[in-house]
Amino acid sequence: MNLNATLIAQLVVFFVLAWFTMKFVWPPIVKALDERAKKIADGLAAADKAKADLALAEKKVVEELRKARESAGDVRSSAEKQASQLIDEARAEAGRIIAKAREAAEAEAGVAAQRAKEALRDQVAHLAVAGAEKILRREINTQVHAELLANLKQELQ
Questions:
Q1: d(CA 131, CA 137)
Q2: 105-137, pLDDT tens digit by residue?
Q3: Are the C-beta atoms of 125 and 146 separated by less than 8 Å?
């Protein structure tokens, strides 16, 4: 064979193969590469968006924590005020109870003192009568004696 014919035949086969590759093989490969590039670009965009969302979420978390701390501080101070108020009310109530108990004890002591005075007056009257009877050693009229005791009681009061 002739070298020129072989060269021409190889050129024809090469161009047919090149044409076939560019017509049927190359477009699916390019399409797959383009799809892959688009997926990678979309993934990078989603990652950037996720980073931005994460930063925004972190800012919101910090703000919510700050609000929660303030709220907890308010609740704590309110609870402390309420506890202080309850303690003050309990102290005031205890003071009122103590004052009432003291008044009742004083009244009871006054009544007991009055009873003791009356009992003492009766004893003094009986002792006076007994002493007078011993001194006089004579009979005393009971009516006169009762009147004298009544007068003595009145004087002692």
A1: 10
A2: 999 999 888 888 888 888 877 777 766 765 564
A3: no
